[in-house]
Amino acid sequence: MALPLSPPPVLDLLRITPAEDLFNAMGQQHGGLINDAYLHWDELRHRPSPQGVKHETWWLAVRMARQALLMQLPLLDKYDRPMWVAMPEPVLRDLHHIDQDAAGRVSLPGESVSPSDRDHYIFSSLMEEAITSSQLEGASTTRLVAEGMLREGRQPRDHGQRMIFNNYQAMQWIRSIKDRPLTPELVLDLHRIVTHGALENPDDAGRLRLRDDIRVLNNRDGTVLHEPPLASSLPERLERLCAFANGGEDDKPFVHPVVRAILLHFMMGYDHPFVDGNGRTARALFYWGMARQGYWLMEYLSISRIIKQAPKQYSLAYLHAETDGSDTTYFLIHQLKVIRQAITVLHGYLARKSAEQRDTARLLQTSPVLKGKLNHRQITLLTHALKHPGYDYVIEAHQRSHDVSYATARSDLLGLAELGLLEQTKRGRAFMFIAPDDLRQRIEQASG
User: Fold this and answer.
1) How far apart are CA 388 and CA 433, in angstroms?
2) Residue 431's beta-bridge partner residues?
């Protein structure tokens, strides 16, 4: 990925642009947007400009329109200049939708989601975020192996598994500290969890970097994409960032809670305060920021899954902000789209799961032997087993998936085996429960 071309300096454009040309250009654009998009110079220069307007003049008009929307933030770039953010219409629309969909008294989509289903969905979401966030930073472990490790509580066996295991532990920990104010010590603790046993120098875990030779590079050609602030400035910058993260509605200027969480994510990536694990730490802190402000639906979403589908756009959002006067609006708009896409994915997932659960429940209702005998957890497992013949279930995985005691998980699986719906066997000293190939027929026969 090539670096985006930096915009021509506004002051230089003001000196060389005839006033009549500028007024003409300003009359042909709206709120700093082009077709409802907040374009960077590197994108705008490739678009057809308004008739009779040079691209440089068009950019100047756009930049001046945005100036009225920009809000100075209590955050600094590496040159100690203020960061900025704007609230154009697309941002306001997205924030409105996220407020409606992710906070307050709204309920999970899908009919009658049980507490057991809720815990299962949270577990699945934590796994998804742990896996994809780590894969974004190079973990090569397959999803199947990673899910098996997390479901069964196995210790990691290689570096990639360690990254995913640590990230899962970090996401769980974030849930436990959501009501605590953010401090530099908490950030260091989080990084220590994220990188435990996964760094070349173990002493770097939970410690701000001490060197200035850290660069963000293009993996393909080695191009330097970002040079973070000096190591000597990091303690003060982290203090400033924590103060910003803990801000509330009485702070001036007012920063919407979702914007605050996204900017916390941005600044951790921008500052790159650690030798490794910066992205995973940044994304975990975003979840802390959202949970702290009551956006409870985020527990069920994976932003990294969406980011992983288009990682170049994620990187460009950072680069556009850095190369256009520290205007973080580019990153804000990108992340708002990510959140809304993740919400859409969740709705689709829950609709599918609800339909599958209903189909299984209807199948069970036809049997006088099975009707009313199975709980939500067992029905969820059978729904999965119907689609995955031969799948191995173990007590520990069922326990972790539904956040229940070992005894409860054991009772669930033994009950299904006693009904002939799972085949019980033993591997070593551990009990295994296998989904039979003819599970549907067994249920239908029990109906007879």
Assistant:
1) 13
2) 426
Please name which of 249, 272, 273 lies closest in space to residue 260, comparing C-alpha atoms.
Answer: 249
| Same domain, residue pair 98 and 247 | yes
**Count of domains observed in the chain:** 3
Do both 205 and 87 map to the same domain? yes
pLDDT in tens, 303-317: 999 999 999 999 999
Structural domain including 147 reads: 71-347
**Ranges of the chain whose pLDDT falls below 70:** 104-116, 447-448
Q: What is the 3-state secondary structure (H, E, C) of the chain?
A: CCCCCCCCCHHHHHHHCCHHHHHHHHCCCECCEECCECCCHHHHCCCCCCCCCCHHHHHHHHHHHHHCCEEEEEEECCCCCEEEEECCHHHHHHHHHHHHHHCCCCCCCCCCCCHHHHHHHHHHHHHHHHHHHHHHCCCCCCHHHHHHHHHHCCCCCCHHHHHHHHHHHHHHHHHHCCCCCCCHHHHHHHHHHHHCCCCCCHHHCCCCCCCCCCCEECCCCCCEEECCCCHHHHHHHHHHHHHHHCCCCCCCCCCCHHHHHHHHHHHHHHHCCCCCCHHHHHHHHHHHHHHHCCCHHHHHCCHHHHHHHCHHHHHHHHHHHHHCCCECHHHHHHHHHHHHHHHHHHHHHHHHHHHHHHHHHHHHHCCCCCCCCCCHHHHHHHHHHHHCCCCEECHHHHHHHHCCCHHHHHHHHHHHHHCCCCEEEEECCEEEEECCCCHHHHHHHHHC
Looking at the fold, whether 98 and 142 belong to one and the same domain comes out as yes
In angstroms, the Cα distances linking 418 to 31, 113, 327, 415, 445 are: 67, 27, 63, 5, 15
Q: Are 172 and 129 in contact (CB under 8 A)?
A: no
Task: Encode pLDDT of 4-38 as tens digits.
Answer: 999 999 999 999 999 999 998 888 777 788 888 99
